[in-house]
Amino acid sequence: MIPQQTKSLKRQHHKLADVQEQINILEHGSTGDFALVPFQQKLAESSLYPLKPVEMGIFQVNLGKMCNQVCKHCHVDAGPDRKEIMTTETMEECLNALRRNPQLQTVDLTGGAPEMNPHFRWFVEEIKALGRHVIVRCNLTIIMANKKYHDLPQFYKQHRVEVVSSLPFYTQDRTDRQRGNGVFEDSIKALQLLNGQGYGVDGTGLVLNLVYNPAGAFMPPAQDALEKEYKQALKEQYGIVFNNLFAITNLPISRFLDYLLQSGNYEKYMEKLVGAYNPVAAANVMCRNTISIGWDGYLYDCDFNQMLDMKVDCSSKHIAQFNTEILAGRNIVVNQHCFGCTAGSGSSCGGAVT
To answer: The whole model's pTM is what?
Structure first.
């Protein structure tokens, strides 16, 4: 089981707070003598290298690394001690990019806890005024964390926001062990509040999706079967309903990488991911139709590349120079962590991809 943490790696001055250290481990192992087949080679064998974008439709914005939780598997290394927050100036640049590019129909807001950005509600309102679909990645406990967040379910309903919420498991012990004591209880209360507004209820059009992350060095089980388990358990025990479950593979980045190294599972986990490489999943990875915008406005192929500071490989590197033609012609930056998105049924911000 992943050990409890209370501070971010950055706050601890941990060696893995240096992204280059993470990349070195991914490429050469913790001792420098562990090397797997390069991800680029696997793509080439699948006739997918260099990996190119398809039509860009999802605009994913990281509003900051501040969070009310310190989750043990977090690839963002988010927490209360992280102060990186997107400014209104950068948000305005994002809005300008959306105005110029009507094909970007979905805006996916993430963090940290995106709601902790002081300009979060204004930003949602401005995006909705442009007629875009908004997804918010909500950790649920933020709704219960402070009175100023208690009305988030009503705010989401007012603006027809799709809510994607993390719930590692449908039992208290497994959830709290991954996310901290009391998280499960607060998550259940938050889900009941969202249900009370009509979220996850048939016929309302208010979408509530849940996210499962494994609590150890293993891949997620079949998404469909797990979704049925979640729906039955949450309905019977708490009266909770939701739309879909997304099963997401933990990528060997940041805190989860630290866990793999500390527990001696790194090599075994990486071999498992490589052995489960699926060319169909590789053809459908999220970086092909998504652009990721960091809290400081820099552009990345995906949220995971963002956390490794692997910027897009083209001249349009910042939201202030956002150019879809240049971005459409780029090669997507890949490395060994990408095996996590292409293993088994594949993994993306929307769960399995095959």
So the answer is: 0.96
